[in-house]
Every structure is written in structure tokens, then in C-alpha cells.
Amino acid sequence: MTTAPAALHFHTLLSDRGGATRVARILARGLVRRGVVVHHTCEILDCDACNDAGGDAGEGGCAQGVVPAAGVGGCLLPGMPLHLHSTLDWTACLHSVAAAGEGGQPVPLIVTVHDCSLLAGGCVYPIDCDGWRIGCPTPCPRGYPGAASLQDSRARALVAAAPLLVSPSGWLARMVRARFPDLPCVVVPNGVEAAGGPPPHEARATLGIAPDARVAIFVAHGGEQAMLKGGHRWMALWGEVKRAVPAAVGLMVGGDVTERDGDLLRWPYVGRAMLDTLLAAADVFVYPTLADNHALVVLEAMAAGVPVCSFRVGGLPEQVEDGVTGALADEGDWGGLAASVAGLLERPRLARTLGRAGQEAWRARFTVDRMVEDYLKVYARL
């Protein structure tokens, strides 16, 4: 077991939501259990608990202080490693950290690259644009103002800060190494806690779903408005599945309403406890993401024993093994994805087999303990 540092400083853009913040909070809780003191600052408080508690939720939970991006360096304790997960302004934040180490002991810095924002001048995921590698074009084809200059300033600030970079997926790590060949980048896959949902029959009773229903669940922060997660195509995809499996029930989670429309139920953004209940009621997890790094919700479905149907994009093939723990359609093959979902709903025994295999894969590769141990090895390199 790797020796843990005495204390670390985490910084995120949001205090509660978003993939980067959630990874930081999960990791912080795991480190606290190993005896590490975790100081956590953020730039925006985005949950009622944070505001009610004055921003201090303790135990590696919500942020313990609010500082702007340009002020992160000023709140660091001498010699304490900073683990930077996300920020509103990468250039200002990295310059602040570099300045904190001038004339004294440099700040030991780890940056986890949760998406492609450090590589480009506006895109979270470039998808079909090669500007992240060859330079953002002017004008930006997606309309980001000053993309080329912003990309350049971020790159110069990152090189000056000289961090140890971490990527949750090999897919993004390869992009990072191509863009910044002189900076070290290691891969540490994300991890999630064990599912805590009730037995399936209890979950369905709680949600008002028949015990023998065939249930497909869609989850994304933003719901049907989450374009990168394919939210704008959820209804069309659900329509194809419903025509193939008339008895199917659909759950759509992450929007801004709670309603029932026949066999389709919608929920807003929910916490992990409620998500576990929804997953416990599901037979198939549908995740038509257009671009992704190493999605936590995919791991949460695997931990719950629910097979995942998605596209073969980004880091998804590093999480889901096609035909073993779920089904991966080729990028943009919406008909193929709908057929995979319908096929598993019609073959519940196969769905359960794939779900159990996914749960075993989670136990072997994607637990919080494994992620904590991997990050302790990263901290030891400092």
C-alpha cells in the first residue's frame, strides 16, 4: 500500500456538480479515509448545502472556501501539493499557481484533465475539429470568440506551471501527449462507490413500475438539453425502442421536470442515492454520448449491474466491453444503438449476464479504493 501524503489542496470550479467536481469529491473522501487532510476550494457554490453551511461540508465533501481562479495561488500553504481539477479560467489559475512558487519553493502541482478544455480555445470536446492539435482556426467554426489566442494562452500557462498531468482515459491521454509532448501524463481511471440501491422489486414498487416491465434508463446532467450526451435525440431513440418493445418503460433523468407521460417517466438532476434507486429498477442503461472521457454515470451503472448501451467514442471502449459488459454501436449509428437496447430488453437473461459481467469489471478496475491507490502513486512522484 502506497504511503499517503499528510495533506493536499483540491480546487474545482463548482462545489457540488459536474463530472470533475464529483471525481474530486469521491477521491477526497477516499483520501480522508486513508488519513489525508484535504483542503478543498472552489470558484462557484452550486448546492444548497454549501450555501447553508457557509461552504464547509467537511470530510472531502463540498468546498471549504471560495476563491476566484486568479487567487488560487494565494491560498496555498507552503509545500502542500495542489490537485487542480477544473476552473473557469485556466490561464489565470495556472499563472496564479506559478506565481505562488516564484522566489521560493515551487508548488507541487497535479492537473487532472477531465475533458479537452485545456487543449482547445473553447471546445469541451472537439469531436470532428482538429484545431486542438494543429491550432484553433480563425474564425472558430463553432463561434467561440478569440479561440486561437485563448488556446495559446492556456498552453503557455500550462507549460509554465509544469504540472504532472493525469487523464482518466488512455484516449484523452494520447491527445494530451500529442499536444504537450514535454509534459508527463499518466492514466488513472475514475472510480465510483458501490451501488446502494434497493432490490429491483422494491425500487420498481417505489417508482410505480410493474415488476415485469422492461425498463430502459437515460441519464445525463441536463437531460434532453444535454447535446453532447445525445439528449436532443433521446426521444427519437426512445421512440424506436418503444416500437420494437411495446411493453418497454423509459426513465429519463437529469432534466428540469418530474412528470409521467404514459410509459415514460422524467426526473430532474438527482443525487447518488436516488440514482441508485432508478438504476436498481432498470434493465438497460442507454448512454448515447457524442463525446466523453471516462463518464462516472457509466461506472455507476456498471456498479449497479446494469448493462450499458452507448457509442464507440472517446474513452467509452475503455469502460464498456462490447458484447461482454454492454453494447457499443459505431459512432452515429443511432439505428444500431436502438437495436442493441431493444435486443437486451427482449432478452432479459442476456441483459442480466452482461450486467453481472459489468459489475465484476467495476469491482476489478473501477472502485474508489483502486483510484485512491493510483493517485497516491501519482502524489508520490512529486
CATH topology of the largest domain: Rossmann fold
Largest sheet, if any?
Answer: 7 strands, parallel
The number of helical segments is: 14
Distance between the amino and carboxyl termini: 17 Å
Strand neighbour order, sheet with most strands? 3-2-1-4-5-6-7
Rg result:
21 Å
Percentage beta strand? 15-25%
Going by CATH, the architecture of the largest domain would be 3-Layer(aba) Sandwich
The secondary-structure class comes to alpha/beta
Order of helices and strands: EHEHEEHEHHEHEHEHEEEHEHEHEHHH
The residue fraction in helices comes out at 25-40%
Overall pLDDT, averaged? 93
| Global outline | globular
CATH H-tier superfamily of the largest domain: Glycogen Phosphorylase B
Count of distinct strands: 14
Q: List the uncertain runs.
A: 51-61
CATH class assignment of the largest domain: Alpha Beta
Total domains: 2
